[in-house]
Amino acid sequence: MNYANNVWKLYAIRFFHNLIPAYVIERLFWEQRGMTIQMVVYTEIIYAITVVLLEIPTGIIADKWSRKKMIVIDGFLGCCELLILVFANKFRHFAAAIFLAGVGRAAYSGSENALLYDSLLSSGKEHNFEKCLGRLNACDFSAAILAALSGSLMASRFGFEFNYWVSFAGMFVSLCISFLLAEPEIKSRPDAPTAIKEYVAESVRFFGRNYGVCVVLLSGMVMGAALNFIDEFWQLYVNRLGIPVIFFGLFSAGLSFIRLPGNVLAYRLKNRMSYRGLISGVVFVFTAGFLYISAVKGYTSLAVIFVICVVSGVMEPLTSGYLHHRIDSSMRATIDSFQSLGLRVMIIIVGLGFGFFSSRYDIFGGYGFIALICGVFLIYFLVSSKKIIE
Fold first, then answer.
1. How many CB atoms lie within 10 A of CB 157?
2. Could you report the per-residue pLDDT of 107-118, keeping only the tens digit for each?
3. 22, 31, 286, 387: least buried by Cβ within 10 Å?
4. By the 8 A CB rule, do 111 and 71 touch?
């Protein structure tokens, strides 16, 4: 069987999975239904905690049972989440929808990368992982661009709820395509773990033996958590600057489009620059950028947000590739899930501070807190990465 076809199916799944025009007006829709910034942060924490609790179990299930079936489960739960949000008008409704999103995300995260890498490995093309992952993310952002450009227009003409129905249709198509995936043969070593405790213990030993991998993944977690609060709250930031909703789609499309070059070219950049140089450069831009948008409340801050998104594009292909080239197929989804687990823990930590400062100094204070986190991590990375990351 030609498992390389899985790559194209994953591209299509990711595209329709993220064809969500509801995201363009989501925070305004939630605010319209009575959700405050702090309540939204609480739902983010619920999401993160759900993923934290289920990330490793679902990764083990994917390795022992089926990566494909876990992707199917994510698509089904995504449809349920969007249906709940259409009718949500109380905090518990939003919390329930976000809980389902967390379960789906936990099921999907390690499974997708594991299925992608092992499909390439079965075809002798595992060296193309960073390239394919970058293109996978490009499908993600292309869908986001299309959703953004159409979402603001649809919201202004047909109301916010219409966007959720269109989003549900895209998620349903993604679910249907996921049934067409083929499960690749897992190439594992003879002494691969079989029990759940063995999976966890072996994963912990792997990270203990590979401190450099830990530092690289930690950089992806910190930057991913920081970027999460741009993705989740840019609508409120732009609203505070007095920009009409009609332009939200254009801004959202720009945020997605600007990340494409980094994702697509990450595999080339890693051949021209060291991992240490690339990552430290990204962290520096994040630190300076978040400091600027927290202090300067003007239109120039929008340009700085775009700069942050430009450099962020290289991080996921870079960190995921650094990890997957060093792990065994029998534990690929499990160990990848540890990466997602760490990201969610980081989102919880940063989210608590972000919510605290946003409730007192509005969105600008929250971004100031993130600038502090990035600055502290930059110092740590420069010191700890010497001689272990090239």
1. 8
2. 888 888 889 888
3. 387
4. yes
